[in-house]
Amino acid sequence: MVVAFEHLAGRVWLCAGESDPEFVQAGVAVISDERGSVLVDAGQSPSHAREIQVALRAAGLEAPRWLVYTHHHWDHVWGACAWPDVEIIGHVSGAELLRAEATRPWSVRYLREEVLRNRRLGPSYRARALAVDSWDELRVLPPSRVFTDEVELPTGVLARHVGGRHAPDSTVVVVPDSGVMLLGDSWYPPPAHLRTPADEPDLALVGRLLDDDIGWYVSSHSPPLTLDEARAAITG
């Protein structure tokens, strides 16, 4: 898959993830202007982050000064260690979870042992094994700056905690002047190894987020939706 940025609206650019769900690769976004770039999510691995960096340069976009985590799941944060000189921003509950994740002995051997203990981890852990080229370079980084409800960056970008069943730290990123809301995975059901047959997408959460002043809604593993498309999706 070619990693490339495409302009969405205003100062928001998107780099889509891998469409094959077996690779569990989330898309990322960059919000760029003369005040500095904000990266939303880090890529699923150091090598993925480096591909994103090449794509940034190819699009003529500035390297980010800030990195916002939409939540703590690996496919959104494992690339963070390859981003130099960024301030990492995330919800306080995700920071606690990532500090615990950082102590785990990530390696192919460890992944295998964990899958043998819990077979439901198989798809996620196989995707991690495919994503990481060198376990020696992987470092799981908690945010260096945490927030509880909402934080506004110097560029006017807002990070707002919404929670939900997918992850307790789920955060949406709002770019008011561009009419864009980046949803992360906030409305998705829980990860596969925690999901029950009763779990469904949280369309009510999306409904609470819809705003007439926001024209675009972007999820990490889905194509962007206009406001009208998002409304149609939640009403069935």
Automatic annotation (TrEMBL):
Transmembrane segment boundaries: none
Annotated signal peptide: none
Domain Metallo-beta-lactamase: 25-221
UniProt superkingdom: Bacteria
PANTHER family: ACYL-COENZYME A THIOESTERASE MBLAC2 (PTHR42951:SF4), METALLO-BETA-LACTAMASE DOMAIN-CONTAINING (PTHR42951)
Name assigned to this protein: Metallo-beta-lactamase domain-containing protein
